[in-house]
Design brief:
The protein is an alpha+beta fold. The chain has helices at 9-12, 15-29, 33-46, 51-63, 67-80, 85-97, 101-114, 119-146, 155-165, 168-192, 226-242, 313-316, and strands at 198-202, 216-218, 247-253, 277-284, 289-299, 302-305, 309-311. It contains 12 helices and 7 strands. Strands 1, 2, 3, 4, 5, 6 and 7 form a 7-stranded antiparallel β-sheet that branches. A hairpin with a 2-residue loop joins strand 5 (289-299) and strand 6 (302-305). The protein is elongated.
């Protein structure tokens, strides 16, 4: 708040200046910040070395969201009276409005040095410290949402595929297929808090009739009952065989699975995610089968996928084997 007590005529340069400042204070209290700022400006012209006038105008500019002007006035206040806590307090409030929390915290801490008994400054320091932590975490969450990198979680799988396939070209193709499918699902979850239940197929570019077999099959009814589950499995096995697919990757949200409920009855040692929402990814190939659960949480108002958790496929398979097993 603007300083309510005006300096005397002798201290501030004349009765006219005092009058202008008092009028400015009245307009400030009434919420007319534009008029208050104009009156403080007139007063500054009469007494340009008075720090309280710049402090008052900074407060008015802050209310008007003219933050750069407000910051400049707070800096002038400090320059004119470096040991006055009000200048640092004013600067801290403006930097807080700019969301420059680290700088605001430094300003409030300086203000406290000059007035260690100020409860108002202490409250500000506590608040800004929390805001700084929240902003840092929000940025971390946004970075994790924007920079999805599933490959770093799949080193073990890559090694297993390498042993099974032998061919570096085949390894690269199959591994890229899985990584791209998982990353696409994570990005969809981040944007919409959901994924569509689908099976993605890695088709054979030379053998597959692309016009007849699509690389994606919707399976939204697959988990309603044992009957629909069994029918879907039979269809997927036939589809994989007839399309000459090399591998497949199922993606489905946990929320739609009525059968089989692959997370229930397994105990906390096998299921570590409690009631967390999320989705399953199951990789199928003639050589290797894997299943992951990607849990989801809400942080700082944003949906965030956690790291994929590798599950025991014998306990948590979402669909039975699609491809005939090969050694």
């Amino acid at each position: 708040m603007a300083e309510a007590v005006a300096r005397s005529s002798a201290a501030t340069g004349g009765g006219e200046e005092v009058s202008l400042k008092d009028k400015g204070n009245e307009f400030f209290k009434a919420g007319n910040y534009l008029k208050a700022a104009a009156l403080y400006t007139q007063a500054i012209k009469l007494d340009p070395s008075n720090p309280s006038l710049y402090s008052n105008r900074a407060a008015a500019f802050l209310q008007l969201v003219k933050l750069n002007k407000a910051l400049a006035d707070s800096e002038t206040t400090i320059a004119l009276n470096p040991q006055w806590e009000k200048g640092y307090f004013r600067k801290g409030c403006i930097l807080e409005a700019m969301e420059r929390y680290d700088d605001a915290l430094a300003a409030f801490q300086t203000a406290l040095q000059y007035n260690s008994q100020s409860a108002e400054v202490s409250r500000k320091i506590k608040r800004i410290s929390q805001l700084a932590k929240d902003k840092k975490r929000a940025q971390e969450v946004e970075n994790m949402r924007s920079n999805v990198d599933m490959a770093k979680h799949l080193d073990t799988l890559r090694s297993e595929l390498s042993e099974k396939l032998g061919s570096e070209e085949s390894l690269k193709e199959m591994f890229s297929f899985l990584v791209e499918t998982m990353e696409m699902a994570v990005k969809s979850w981040h944007e919409n808090a959901k994924v569509d239940p689908r099976v993605y197929f890695l088709l054979d570019k030379e053998k597959t009739q692309i016009d007849k077999y699509a690389p994606v099959v919707n399976i939204d009814k697959a988990f309603e009952s044992p009957h629909t589950h069994g029918s879907c499995f039979s269809f997927l096995r036939q589809y994989a065989e007839e399309s000459f697919s090399k591998a497949a990757c199922l993606v489905t949200p946990k929320s739609i699975i009525s059968y089989p409920q692959v997370w229930k009855g397994q105990g906390p040692r096998k299921w570590r995610h409690g009631q967390h929402d999320g989705f399953f990814v199951q990789f199928e190939s003639p050589f290797l089968r894997k299943v992951w659960f990607i849990p989801s949480s809400n942080e700082k108002g944003q949906t965030l996928c956690r790291d994929p958790d590798t599950l025991d496929i014998s306990a948590h398979e979402v669909i039975p084997r699609i491809f005939k097993e090969k050694q």
